[in-house]
């Protein structure tokens, strides 16, 4: 990648932040839809495009883009830079990611005062890698039997964050598969997406008491 990823920010400048990290399909219309939902709940949303505008259409192409992004230092530097900007504001913020994005979101915990207060993870993640974890809550939205995010990986994420002192809440969506919360994806389930949206917005809605 020859240049830093483009970053889009949506919502009121004074609103509490959410770093929204896309799946291996790129910044799709589904990602834009989720960003709009978060803005409607009173959040300011920061969306880095880690694929430089590319929108893979096959799993093979998407995996190739994901591996290239993970192997490119500019990817993690961009994610870290966005996170550091939100942390520097001195108020609680959240990181939310889908699959690849969930994996990257978890890398932001374990940095002490720079940690996201909350993580919202869709069918992906990893245990925290740092020793000073201050993430308060982790919400996992998962599909039972998902081969792309098997039970042992989910358990490792749950256990790692619980051991670090975070509250971990697991939301299961029976009958769904990977990508169920992304319109236009191979596994999209509209009813599950609506339920997931309601749960996420209830968690992240900016209320006067939160200020």
Task: Describe the 3D structure.
Keywords: Hydrolase. GO terms for molecular function: hydrolase activity. With 211 residues, the protein is an alpha/beta fold. The chain has a single domain (6-205), classed as Rossmann fold (3-Layer(aba) Sandwich), CATH 3.40.50. The protein has helices spanning 29-40, 59-70, 73-87, 100-106, 151-163, 190-204, and strands at 6-10, 17-21, 44-49, 94-98, 118-122, 137-142, 167-172. Strands 1-3-2-4-5-6-7 form a seven-stranded mixed beta sheet, with helices on both faces. Strand 6 (137-142), helix 5 (151-163) and strand 7 form a beta-alpha-beta unit. The longest helix is centred in the middle third of the chain and has 15 residues, at 73-87. The model has no long low-confidence stretch (mean pLDDT 94).
